[in-house]
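This entry is listed as follows:

___
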Amino acid sequence: MATTCSSMPGTRSRFSTRQRQKRYSARGKRSLRVKAVHEIELTTRVLKAVRRIATEHDARVLEVNLRVGEINEPNSLRLWLNKLGGDEFNSTKFNISRVPITIKCECGYVGNASSIDTHIPQPELGIPCPRCGGHELSLTSGQELEIVDVKLEKKGVQKRRTKKSR
């Protein structure tokens, strides 16, 4: 029995419509897992860098300011920062400044990609230009992940409360 491949031209798929739907939904779940792994990796890198800064200064991290491109899913990143930070970053405030996705086309169009599906990581994969319909797009912003600054407090130094003597 010969096997057929649906990706080859002129061949029929050996899967029924129902089986193809199951395969598609399985791929969708897999892509969600891949996306989560990507976000966990980004979060791990941020936490590792912040931890290194705190160690170098022998200090506790109070606040971290980040610039995060929309492609890197700022809301998910915030969630993972809180989950993966654990006790070490429990009281740390993570401020995230969002960077919108901006695209540029060879025709000269430059614009915000808010109306375009942002779950496609690279516009080169088929998103048409709103002006000319071409597919020669490139990202000019939206992929950033930058630690802008980190606010620290030296270990052992505590804020003192003054008590009124009676």
In short: The chain has two helices and six strands. The domain at 21-150 is CATH 3.30.2320.80 (hypothetical protein PF0899 fold). Residues 17-56 form the longest helix (40 residues). The first strand starts at residue 59 and ends at 69.
